[in-house]
Design brief:
The chain has about 1050 residues and is α+β, with helices and mostly antiparallel strands. It has 33 helices and 34 strands.
């Protein structure tokens, strides 16, 4: 997490022994729960910490250690401070998706909010009782479903941005549309989101919250400071110019009725402009608007026109930022200040103003469903696979029913199967989410019991003065809301009739849900308030905390355009934090869905640079942007109370990097007799996302170097794709070696012999692998290039499916003949193009294509509607289906290989699936009735709601994307690069992160000429992966891109 966040919410951390290997059953080390929990409890009490987050390696596959530690921690705290409220967040309950750092960040943020939720949620319930509303309490979640009061209190982060989700769903419901943008204009802000096939469009695989990357779902919403109460100011000397007017972001907020001009106030607002110029928002003016404006404050017609145009420009820019293509879109405008939107906007096909749009948010809150989720690890077999999946679906249905859903309405909305690479045959992580309609009927006896206990709890709450004051305030606000509801009773009746017509439920009478224990929440209010007062004492501070780097803002467009990398007088590129950002973004795109997480490697490098700066006296620390996992150092510097056991604690404290920043050298500057080798990670990306590496790659390099006649001069990237592009930079920092601006693949490939060096006849051996336990294996020689792949891949499985690898030692003379030059520079250029496009609010996907100068192509923009995966020979193989709603999205796709059907590969995959029973051959085997209404089950040939022009692109992958097919045509294949990018951010989406519902853009980029030779095509062409197809290149490799050294290099 960034230091700016850890400084706000963290009182320290504990590294404890434990965790599981990739199979979910083998312990990395035994848990010492009682000892470590006692240490944590003492430190929490000493630091005044109000909550804790527990995160274990591979906890989604096996949560037993998290549960055991939480139990011991709770017991230790109660033993030391009886009656103290204990708030413990378990990471596996927040997200069942793999990704240790992302899950850890989500758990930490949730834990920091748990005390607040524990105080607030019971007061909501108490306010309902004060109003005589004896009903269960639900709170809207950020995925469009409802959370019980208890669930929202336990996991408050799941309510983030639920307001915009309500508006999007409510607006779509009122307008009767399935695909549109929704613009909700309130008193202070405007939120613009999209509804796609009836549901809010969600963000990509990872979402940043307070600068920390998390892996729970969030809506994709654009927000900016424009609302009915936004302040309007004019510059009198520039009345003739549009720039003479500013709108917001300051707002009068709830004081609009008293402050605005048309109500006799003295503040010009956006609502005044709409009323005075176009007689919009008439409810504000109870008399002729111009008459109500105080003398001398009435704006001129010219001023009003300038302000109106500024408002429309802000809205148009927001709509453009939320769009996924240049095509015009329908826009549904709702909210209390919907009148600020004119009758036409650029890029908008039509503007829809549904009846009751001012209460769209409330409507959206009233129609969400209740969800149940199950994440588990299964050993799927061909004989029992369907029964196993059915059992998981039933578990998810039971969870939804327990949360309050009607059983007969439950439908599967998400089903994800991720095979465990290198694991036991059929080992698969299964994620199922079920949603159903909220059941509103309750048995009379249960309702009476709830009311009785709630009354008793309310009486107890009244004894606490502070809580009573909060309850009275909440009750007053609720009473005002009730009055508003009564005024719109006819509107709600209309909504009921609309909902009755829309729902397609069975005729069976609904079954009552389990009774929510609202009274128990009421009883907690008094003790929570008192306990929070004791826990809110200041945390201990330390003078050493001042050495931590101050958080820096994201670079502006001007800063990006003016930035120049630093090339030393020795010709070495001294990599900065911004350079790392750019290389990481570009390398992930070049990874074609594989290569491991560049983001994790980026965090490790940032931490190493921070540690190097601190070791040098902190002179450079203020220049280093803390975006990584630096919480370990900062937490220890803030308080030394929390310490713990870790398998590498002694080594990590003593190993300081030899360089203060990574160094990259030009290939032409590499001496002829210098020795170089490639280095990177080997294994399953899903494993490395959980089981973070430390010094395995450095250990492999040292073992390989010891087998060479003289020391290494520099390092090489094995592949420029994904995290393996950054790993040599981290190893180089530690060992004091520069990295050559080149790699051996020009992208990412799944097997070792698919390197340009092996293709050219350079031996891969000697090669070394090292694991996290200290095991190192050296392979001195190999009979052929295929043998290192076979031997070392098997060793990788035994060593935990994640090892460091060093191979292909060669001289500088050989390297210049066989490597792909300028690879890191290419990644930097791509990353800078994406970052600059984001800063300019432009399309990052188009920016990447522009960089390639017409050599690349956009194949498709669409939504992932199906994913199948299976394991074969240690690789995750499968395919994804991406649907486009409009035919023009795919019109530009030409037939690269008319005779290539890919049928041989497809048949081979299906035969393998039937033979080993290790994967998903056809997801349509799930009961179709259980898929959410209005959508086809994954595996079907179409999606409900699609027009007849809907088309699909199918991408086959083996760790990396291999082939893109449109119908029977192959429209792109290896060695060219098939890249799936998030359509909004331009971030690459890895094959292990592809899931139903993601909105992606698929690019086809040209491979380097070294990968297009006849010899190379035998190893990395379509035939090498089982496709009976002829390779036709997408276009020439861009020759106009200069290396960073060539563009910015200066010699002393």
């Amino acid at each position: 997490m960034p230091s700016s966040l850890t400084q706000q919410i963290s009182a320290g951390y504990l590294l404890a022994l434990g965790g599981f290997e990739y199979d979910g059953t083998t312990e990395i080390s035994p848990l010492q729960a009682s000892t470590d929990a006692a240490t944590a409890a003492d430190a929490m009490l000493a630091a005044g910490a109000a909550a804790a987050a527990v995160c274990g390696v591979h906890a989604p596959l096996n949560p037993s250690q998290e549960l055991a530690f939480a139990q011991q921690l709770h017991a230790a705290l109660q033993q030391r401070a009886p009656g103290l409220p204990v708030h413990i967040t378990l990471s596996h309950k927040l997200s069942g998706r793999l990704g240790l750092l992302e899950r850890e960040a989500a758990a930490a943020i949730n834990a920091s909010l748990a005390p607040l939720a524990a105080a607030v949620v019971p007061q909501y319930a108490a306010a309902l009782q004060q109003l005589g509303l004896h009903v269960p309490l639900y709170i809207t979640g950020n995925d469009g479903t409802l959370l019980s009061a208890a669930a929202a209190q336990e996991h408050p982060v799941l309510t983030f941005k639920s307001g915009p989700v309500n508006s999007v769903r409510g607006a779509a419901f009122l307008a009767g549309v399935g695909d549109a943008l929704v613009c909700d204009i309130g008193g202070t802000t405007t939120d613009i989101g999209a509804v796609v096939w009836g549901m809010p469009r969600m963000c990509g695989a990872f979402v940043e919250v307070a600068g920390a990357c998390t892996n729970f779902q969030m809506p994709d919403v654009t927000s900016f400071g424009l609302g009915g109460g936004s302040l309007v100011t004019w510059q009198q000397q520039q009345q003739q110019q549009q720039q003479g007017c500013s709108i917001g972001p300051l707002s009068v907020g709830a004081d609009l009725a008293r402050s605005c001009l048309v109500r006799g106030g003295s503040t010009a607002t956006a609502s005044d402009v709409a009323v005075l110029l176009h007689d919009r928002l008439p409810e504000l003016a109870d008399q002729p608007a111009a008459v109500a404006v105080p003398a001398g404050l009435l704006p001129s017609q010219q001023q009003l026109q300038v302000a109106w145009q500024a408002i429309q420009s802000r809205l148009a820019a927001g709509v453009d930022a939320a769009k996924q293509s240049a095509a015009d879109v329908p826009l549904v405008v709702v909210g209390g200040a919907a009148g600020l939107c004119g009758d036409a906007l650029p890029g908008v096909r039509c503007i829809i103003r549904p009846e009751h749009g001012d209460v769209a948010n409330a409507v959206g809150a009233a129609i969400p469903q209740v969800a149940g989720t199950v994440d588990t690890l299964l050993l799927l077999s061909a004989a029992t696979r369907q029964q196993q999946l059915d059992a998981v679906v039933e578990q998810a249905i039971a969870a939804a029913v327990e949360a309050g859903a009607e059983h007969s309405s439950c439908r599967v909305t998400e089903l994800e199967e991720v095979p465990v690479a290198y694991g036991s045959a059929g080992a698969t992580r299964v994620h199922v989410k079920v949603a159903g309609e909220l059941q509103l009927q309750r048995p009379a006896a249960a309702a009476a019991a709830t009311e009785t206990s709630a009354a008793a709890a309310a009486a107890a709450v009244q004894e606490d003065v502070q809580v009573k004051a909060s309850i009275d305030a909440a009750a007053a606000a609720a009473a005002a809301a009730a009055a508003a509801v009564a005024a719109h009773e006819h509107q709600l009746d209309h909504l009921d009739s609309l909902k009755d017509r829309q729902q397609q439920q069975t005729k069976q009478p609904p079954q009552p849900p389990p009774q929510q224990q609202t009274a128990q929440l009421l009883q907690q209010a008094t003790q929570q308030t008192a306990a929070l007062a004791d826990l809110q004492s200041p945390r201990p501070s330390s003078s050493s905390s001042s050495s931590q780097a101050a958080p820096a803002e994201q670079p502006s467009l001007q800063q990006l355009q003016q930035y120049r990398p630093c090339i030393s007088s020795q010709g070495l590129w001294e990599v900065s934090s911004l350079d790392l950002d750019a290389i990481a973004v570009g390398a992930q795109i070049l990874g074609c869905g594989g290569g491991g997480s560049a983001r994790h490697s980026r965090l490790k490098l940032e931490h190493a640079m921070s540690a190097a700066a601190a070791a040098a006296g902190g002179a450079d620390s203020q220049q280093q942007r803390q975006t990584g996992d630096g919480q370990g150092c900062s937490a220890h510097q803030k308080t030394s109370a929390i310490t713990g056991n870790t398998t590498s604690s002694s080594s990590s404290s003593s190993r300081q990097p030899k360089l203060k920043a990574p160094l990259i050298m030009s290939l032409k500057d590499l001496p002829d007799d210098a020795y170089v080798c490639d280095v990177g990670g080997m294994g399953a990306p899903t494993v490395s996302a959980e089981k973070l590496d430390s010094y395995e790659c450095a250990a492999a390099v040292q073992a390989l170097s010891a087998a060479l006649p003289r020391p290494l001069t520099a390092l090489l990237c094995a592949e420029v794709g994904g995290g393996n592009a950054l790993e040599p930079l981290a190893v180089g920092m530690e060992l004091g070696l520069p990295v050559v601006d080149a790699d051996l693949m020009g992208r990412a490939f799944p097997e070792l012999q698919m390197s340009t060096a092996a293709i050219a006849g350079v031996p891969l051996t000697p090669a070394a692998v090292a694991d996290d336990k200290g095991n190192v294996l050296l392979m001195a020689a190999a009979a052929s290039p295929n043998w290192p792949e076979r031997v070392l891949r098997a060793a990788c499985t035994e060593m935990g499916c994640s090892v460091g690898l060093a191979s292909s030692p060669m001289t500088g003379t050989t390297a210049r003949e066989v490597v792909v030059p300028g690879s890191l520079s290419l990644a930097w250029h791509i990353g800078m193009a994406v970052l600059t496009a984001r800063a300019a609010n432009a399309d990052p996907v188009a920016a990447v294509l522009q960089l390639y100068g017409g050599s690349g192509r956009l194949l498709l923009r669409g939504k992932v509607v199906g994913v199948t995966r299976h394991t074969q020979e240690g690789f995750v193989r499968g395919s994804m289906r991406i649907a486009a709603r409009q035919l023009q999205d795919i019109d530009s796709m030409s037939d690269i290989s008319p005779s290539a059907t890919g049928s041989a590969q497809q048949q081979q995959q299906q035969q393998q699936l039937a033979a080993d029973g290790a994967g998903v051959a056809d997801e349509q085997q799930l009961p179709a009735a259980r898929w959410v209404e209005g959508e086809a089950a994954p595996g079907s040939s179409s999606s409900s709601g699609s027009s007849s022009s809907s088309v699909e692109l199918v991408i086959d992958f083996q760790n990396e994307n291999l082939v893109a097919r449109h119908g029977s045509r192959i429209v792109g294949c290896v060695p060219d690069l098939i890249c799936c990018l998030d359509s909004i951010s331009g971030e690459a989406v890895a094959t292990e992160d592809i899931r139903y519902g993601l909105h992606v853009s698929v690019l086809l980029l040209p491979a380097h000429p070294l990968l297009r030779t006849p010899a190379a095509l035998q190893v990395v062409g379509p035939a090498a992966f089982g496709y009976d197809a002829e390779y036709h290149p997408v276009g020439p490799f861009p020759a106009g891109l200069c290396t960073v050294h060539g563009l910015y290099g200066v010699r002393a």
